[in-house]
Amino acid sequence: MLLILITNTVFSAEYFISPQGSDWNNGESKDDPFKSFKQAFGDMDAGDTLWLMDGNYSEENENGVLRDVGSYGETLEYSSSIPSGISRSKPTTVKAINPGKVRIHKVKSLPKDHGTPLYIGRSNRKDQFIHIEGIIFEGGGSLSNSSNIIIKKSGFNGSFGIGDSSHYKGNTYNLIEDVWIWTKNKRIAAANYRSHYNIWRRVIIKVEGCDFPGCNDGPGGKQDPSVGFTVYDSHNVSVQNVIVIDRQLDKAISYGDFATAQHTDGDASYLPKDVSGEDYYLANNEWLGCMSVNSVDSAFSSEADNVVHNKNILHVKDFVAIHPENGGLSIGNTPYNHKKNSYFILENISLFLSPKNKKNGIYISPELDDVITLNNILITDTKTGISAPSKPSYVNITASEKPLHKYTYCGKKCTSINPFKTKPVSVRYPLKIEKNSKLYKAGLNKKNIGATILYQYGANGLIYGDKKYNQLSKAPLWPWPYEDLILKEFCKKSDNGICDKNKKDLRGNPYTITSYIWESLNNKMPARLY
Fold first, then answer.
1. How many distinct structural domains can be found in the chain?
2. Which end of the chain is more exposed for a tag (fewer CB within 10 A), N or C?
3. Is residue 46 part of a domain?
4. What is the DSSP letter of 404?
């Protein structure tokens, strides 16, 4: 008896593309690569892989970019959008053979921002199950209508965001991992806009500021402030080990390296009838192991008009701010629909503020008197430690003219230890508390007072909702992944901060991202970090 077994196995094919290829080729090998994305994606099936050979890709070079039309439907001759994959296990993959050796350039023939080299999804089409890796995008990128998009080991010279205002379909379950973003003359460098269940993991952002007065102009002449990374009108977003470094303002309006805001009303008149503004209320957003490094602005700002009740609205844990000139963290307003069962949690935070600017360490809206939990926070070198109506516990505040604001009373075990002068010293490096010091395991549940950012949050490739997607792992965070490649890109047209060629680390060597951050308190980075 002959048995015929029928399966649903889906086979994936591999194709190749090169700036020097030809669309007369079959694209099936490095020796016979395609030239244009339009030809490649026309031949590929869902779930196939396209390998990008080294070089520069552009519409002008007859390769195209990764989008089908311009922002207003302008025709692109050689470009195409990436076809959706089949599932998480069978994504369509677009991957550089050699990470960092492939560049895709914006469309120069189109008006500014109309031809960014990566644009996924359209208002009438959701693109999903796509994996992008190892590519540098000259001109930024956007996920417009997307789901299950993974972008890894890639750089964006220009702003990058998940979500835009062209539709209300949403962008969900996307992962941005080991990505670097650098901008100039952009109000926002990176944004999670009206998009939910997304993860930003190990992203580093450098902002050169805006050198013209209209940089903050928005629709109708409205001016909006400048931010490094924002989570706006979004819920269930996990921001893990994200750094904003050396952010400049120039003529831009200040706000914060990190920002979160919510301004859409539940029954906003401009929304479609089948969309409720309540979909955009803040809830379950978290910042885990994040850093603001040498900013001329504040480190973190929040303002929410509306929130989801019975939820953790905002959770900031293991956060470091190194010398922000305009203050530390601000929970800047009370939501209009605020009730007593909405939670804002700030814990294990280390703020190293410049004493010359006399700014608040932490500011909390005076009406948020019983929804803020302040545990295990270290604040140094600031005028006012905490301005809040709630009672912080296990807080250490030093070098302040007013260790506690007039509205603030200590809940339990508040101290004023100088962490630089204890024996042994409590703080040598901004990313950890020294073992057996007075702040070591001195907090609630024997946690440290202050941040510890030594290990990676989440495991590689996990998306929102996966088991342990936001748990602290045992994988070392330092040295920072791909830091040599990142610095090479950051410093091509920048000479400030880490890119100042006249500055060396305390061993006399050029700075790396790792040494720049570890040595920011003027202590030589140890030979062994772990």
1. 1
2. N
3. yes
4. S
